[in-house]
Amino acid sequence: MVQHKRYNKLLKRLKVGVFVVIVVAVVGYMYWDVELNPSSSTAQTAGGLEKTLVLGTDPGFKPFEYKQGQQTVGFDIDLAREIAKDTNRSLQIEEIAFDGLLPALQAGRIDLIAAGMTVTSERKQNAEFSNSYYTATQKVIVPKVGSVVVGIEDLAGKRIGVQLGTTGDTLAREINGAKVVQLQSTSSVMQELNSRRIDAAIMDNGPASQYLVTNPGLTMLSRNLSREEYAIAIRKGNTKLLKEVNDSIAKMKRDGRYDALVKKYFGAAKL
Length: 271
Hints:
Number of strands: 14
CATH architecture of the largest domain: 3-Layer(aba) Sandwich
Shape: globular
Helix content: 40-55%
Distance between the termini: 92 Å
CATH class of the largest domain: Alpha Beta
Radius of gyration: 28 Å
Structural class: alpha/beta
């Protein structure tokens, strides 16, 4: 009986010893994994390297951001994916109406905006802006046949369609006597123009050129209304992310990734 009790005690001690050895081994492996192998997924989680970059965009602005089936694609989306890769982050896309993007950024719902957004003095009061990644112009689109607008000067007093909150919206409201029709997307603006419920549309040259391909009854006036720069908007005070974004854009322009994106979406070497 005494020997049996001694045996049980010895067995218990052995079990405790094995458990301690296992715990020490696991902790030791985790320490080695984080300290000596920082590229592993364990290291990324423990070291805080695996973060999500939340991008706000409005996917109705082809070729910069648009829907392809259920997927959001475009020049800006690919640019943001490259920025996420360069900063060791994953990318999460939040679809928000254009006029709601800056309020969402200020509220902390998103980290940055890539949506063909022009840098203006008014917007700079509410957000930080990266270095420019694209130079755009504002264009006027009209019907090819029977249009009452044949030049910029003819826009006075006319019904002009624009996407709400865009530069085109701002410019249209500065035209003398213009009746500005504000809509949520550029595709809605084009529908109104095709139906002749408006006399002209004002939008950026990128999407304007894309729409003309599939709308042969429309044309674009040769004269530009303005010339402007697109940049990525970042929450005020987030200078760390601003520097990371600028560094990534500069790196893409050096290593050829930027030119590859331009060719993919515009078919030109560099804009």
